[in-house]
Amino acid sequence: MRLLHERHVLHCDVHPGNIGVTPRVPLALLLSPSSPFDFNDLAHWQVVFIDHEWSHVRGWHYEDTFVRNRMWLYASDRQVWCSGKYSTPDDLEALAYILLAIYYSGRLPWRSDVEAESAKYPQDFGEDDSDLEFVFETRERHLRTLRDSCHESDSASDVDSLLADLLDFVFYARALNSDEVWIDYSRWESLFHERFTRTSQSPAQ
Q1: pLDDT tens digit string along 123-156?
Q2: Using an 8 Å Cβ cutoff, are 16 and 31 in contact?
Q3: DSSP H helical segments within 59-184, as ranges?
Q4: Residue limits of the Protein kinase domain (predicted)?
Q5: How large is the angle between the packed helices 185-201 and 158-175, nearest 10 degrees?
Q6: Alpha carbon 128 to chain centroid, angstroms
Q7: pTM of the entire structure?
Q8: Which domains are delineated in the chain?
Q9: How many Cβ atoms from other residues are within 10 Å of residue 10's Cβ?
C-alpha cells in the first residue's frame, strides 16, 4: 500500500479479495491448526492488488450504490458517512480492518451484527441515515470493547499482545485526517514484519 501511495495511486476498494495476498482456499482453513494446507506454501495464494470489476482507481463514488453494503465492513468511517473525497488514510483504515479480520480467522467482530441488520432490509439498506449510524456505531462499540479488554488483561502472551498492536494500528488509522500528508508506514511495517516473522518461526502448537 505504501508503494501504491508513493505513486499517487489510491486503491479505493480495499477488501480481503484484492489486497495482494488473496488465499486460493478459505482463509479460515489456512489459519486452522488442523488445516491440511500449509499457510507458507505460495501455491495456496494468488496475487491480486486491484480487482477492476470492483475497484474505481480514480476514486470511490459515493453515489454508486452497486452492492455498496459489501464495502461497509471494511470502508473507513468517512466513507461509511460519504463525507469527503477519498484519500490515502481511507485506504489505510480499510487495510487495518482487514488485518483485524485475519486475526479473527477472516471474520470481523462486527460483521454478524451488520449482516443481520442489512438482512432485514435487503433491498434498501443504506438508503437511510439510521442505517449508516448503525454500521458506524456497531463498529465503534466492538472496537472500544476490544481495546478495553486488552487494557484490562494481565496476559502477556504473544496472541494478546498481537491483538493490542493490531488495535493500535486500527485506532492510528482511524485518527488520521482525510488530508493527512504524512503517514508513518515504516513504523507499522517494522512492527508487523517483526511480528509475523516471529510467528512463522515459532514451533507449531
Answers
A1: 666 667 787 788 889 999 999 999 988 877 665 5
A2: no
A3: 69-72, 77-80, 88-103, 111-120, 129-152, 158-175
A4: 1-196
A5: 160
A6: 24
A7: 0.72
A8: 1-189 (1.10.510)
A9: 20
